[in-house]
Amino acid sequence: MATRKTLLLTASTVLMFVTITAISSVSVAAPMNQNSSQGNSGYQFMPWACQFCGSQMNYTRMIEEHHNLFTDLSYEQYYLATNGTFQNLGVPNLIGMANQYHLAAYPMIISADPAAMHLLFTKSTVQSAFISTAVQAAVNEGYAGYNIDFEVPDYSDSANVTAFVSHFSNALLAAGKQLTLDVIGFHGYSPQAYGSAYNYSALSNTSVSLIVVEDYYAASDFMQAVNYSVAHVAMDKLMIALPDYGYEFIVNATSTQPFPNNLIPPYVDYSYSGMYGVAKNTATQARAAGANVTLHYSNFYAESYYEIVYPSNKNVGYEYYYVGHKGMEFRLNYLESLGIHKAALWRAGSTDPGMWSAVHQYKEESTLPGSELGFFHLTLFSDAIRFIFHIF
Question: From CA 194, how far away is CA 187, in angstroms rounded?
Answer without folding.
Answer: 11
